[in-house]
Amino acid sequence: MSLREADRISSAQQTLDILFEMSQLLNTQLDKETLATCVGMIESGVNPEALAAVIQELRREGAALNAQATADGRESGAGR
Fold it and tell me: Which of 36, 43, 60, 80 is the most exposed place for a label (fewest CB within 10 A)?
């Protein structure tokens, strides 16, 4: 690996670290890997607002599924 390539990787890592700190301050609940994936998608041309909307929708659906699973678990345990 050349020095220039190592500098580029180091710079990218520092940028991701800063973005992750900002993400934590804004309470986005994104882990570093997910944040890196989102940054990569945006760098590839994905609309950031559309990506944010998809993430929010996935979270809503996940919460609804978790609530349904919890409710189903209570119902099946009630008849014992």
Answer: 80
The C-alpha R_g of the chain, in whole angstroms, comes to 19
**Alpha-carbon gap, residue 30 to 10, rounded angstroms:** 22
Q: Say yes or no to pLDDT of 75 above 80.
A: no
Distance CA 65, CA 62 (A): 5
The pTM is what? 0.74
Alpha-carbon gap, residue 25 to 23, rounded angstroms: 5
Residue type, 80: R
pLDDT the model gives residue 43: 95
Q: What are phi and psi of 28, to 5 degrees?
A: -75, -15
Give me 55's structure tokens: 């993430």
Instruction: Decide if pLDDT at 28 tops 60.
Output: yes
